[in-house]
């Protein structure tokens, strides 16, 4: 059996990764439709050695597709996901538009695959935020073993999470500055090249940014545990691909670093790289970029807390943080439900 797939946001950073991951994993595609705005209609994208012509989503008949992989922004999903679902196309949505709706499943396949069954209610499945996905893939085995009470996390997030314009801004600023030329930030509020910005997404009333609160809300929903306390600081760094996270947890029962490493070594989707020597840890550029696993290292007991554990977690934000997670959901959907 094959499935007709529509990729909305086909010309974007995540859209491109969706095509390559569908191809790499040999997803059983029938027809594939590349959709974007009217700006890109007529452009061409490559898929499985073929050339697909990008269509304007506004005129697309979603009854042609079985599965829609949406990654064109929240307002675009707000408009088109219900239309697609009504036409019988199950939407896997990469935006934040539906993540917090009680009747829409929010899924990380390594953590809560059973939640996918709930797609039937509205025909939409939400893909979580990139930072949340990689953190929970790493924390799930520890939560199952000893329970997590509190998570203190600082992120170091790549510009590709913002999209193609941000990738271009980092490249252009870097080149300009190295050539002694002036720059004027456009995508980010301040210079991103050679700098670190403690703001991702908009500020909310409590002083946290929306990116930070996404990690709070989504962790509880995906883990199915409203007692988990999460205290994030989300930071943009001048890296193209790969988010890093310094994750500090307090567990209900004490867990040793040794036991945590043992659990992580057999956890689905995790690769441990933890050697206490120079370079004995994963990084965004050297390990994660272009790869599928969530990499974990620097696992050590917190010297300031009796039930504290520290971890360094790195993954490709465009792949596991977005496109790969969506395709994994599509695989389960195809295999089990449609
Ligand atoms: P387009 O090329 O037509 O602008 P990125 O996250 O890398 O910035 O990519 C965003 C993706 O979402 C692009 O494929 C972009 O297509 C698409 N997109 C943005 N706005 C719309 C819209 N209003 N309708 C359809 N697609 C959109």
Structure description:
With 338 residues, the chain is α/β, with parallel strands linked by helices. The protein has nine helices and 14 strands. A hairpin with a 6-residue loop joins β13 and β14. α4 crosses α9 (319-337). The longest helix has 19 residues, at 319-337. It is globular, with a radius of gyration of 20 Å. Bound molecules: adenosine-2'-5'-diphosphate (A2P). Adenosine-2'-5'-diphosphate binds next to α1 and α5. Phosphate binds at residue 99. It comes from Methylomagnum ishizawai. Its EC number is 1.2.1.11.
Spatial strand order of the main sheet: 5-2-1-6-7-8
CATH architecture of the largest domain: 2-Layer Sandwich
User: Judging from the principal axes of the Cα atoms, what is the shape?
Assistant: globular
Q: How many domains in all? A: 2
Structural class label: alpha/beta
Strand content: 15-25%
- Bound ligand species: adenosine-2'-5'-diphosphate
Integer-rounded radius of gyration: 20 Å
Please give the count of helices.
Answer: 9
Strand elements, count: 14
Low-confidence stretches: none
Largest sheet: 6 strands, parallel
Core attributes:
2 domains, Dihydrodipicolinate Reductase, domain 2, 6-stranded mixed sheet, Semialdhyde_DH_dimer_dom, Semialdehyde_DH_NAD-bd, 338 residues, Rossmann fold, 6-stranded parallel sheet, binds adenosine-2'-5'-diphosphate, globular, alpha/beta, NAD binding, 23% strand, 9 helices, NADP, 14 strands, amino-acid biosynthesis
């Amino acid at each position: 059996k094959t499935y007709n797939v529509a990729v909305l946001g086909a010309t974007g950073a995540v859209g491109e990764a969706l095509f390559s991951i569908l191809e790499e994993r040999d997803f059983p595609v029938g027809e594939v439709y590349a959709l974007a705005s009217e700006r890109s209609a007529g452009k061409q994208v490559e898929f499985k050695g073929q050339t697909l012509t990008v269509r304007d989503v506004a005129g697309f008949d979603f009854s042609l597709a079985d599965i829609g992989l949406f990654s064109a922004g929240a307002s675009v999903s707000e408009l088109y996901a219900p239309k697609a679902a009504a036409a019988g196309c199950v939407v896997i949505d990469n935006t934040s538009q539906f993540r917090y709706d009680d009747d829409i499943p929010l899924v990380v396949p390594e953590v809560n695959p059973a939640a996918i069954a709930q797609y039937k209610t509205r025909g939409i499945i939400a893909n979580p935020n990139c930072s949340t996905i990689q953190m929970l893939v790493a924390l799930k085995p520890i939560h199952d073993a000893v329970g997590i009470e509190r998570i203190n996390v600082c992120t170091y997030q790549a510009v590709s999470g913002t999209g193609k314009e941000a990738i271009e801004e980092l490249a252009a600023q870097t080149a300009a500055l190295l050539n002694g030329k002036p720059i004027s930030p456009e995508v980010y509020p301040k210079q991103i090249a050679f700098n670190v910005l403690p703001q991702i997404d908009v500020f909310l009333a409590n002083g946290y940014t929306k990116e930070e609160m996404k990690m709070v809300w989504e962790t509880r929903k995906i883990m199915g545990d409203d007692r988990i306390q999460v205290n994030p600081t989300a930071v943009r760094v001048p890296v193209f691909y790969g988010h890093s996270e310094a994750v500090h947890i307090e567990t209900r029962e004490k867990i040793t670093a040794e036991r945590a490493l043992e659990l992580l070594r057999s956890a689905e989707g995790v690769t441990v790289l933890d050697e206490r020597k120079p370079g004995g840890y994963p990084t965004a550029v050297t390990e994660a970029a272009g790869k599928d696993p969530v990499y974990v290292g620097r696992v050590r007991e917190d010297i300031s807390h009796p039930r504290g554990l520290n971890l360094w977690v790195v993954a490709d934000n465009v792949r596991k943080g977005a496109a790969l997670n969506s395709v994994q959901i599509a695989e389960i959907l195809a295999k089990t439900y449609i």
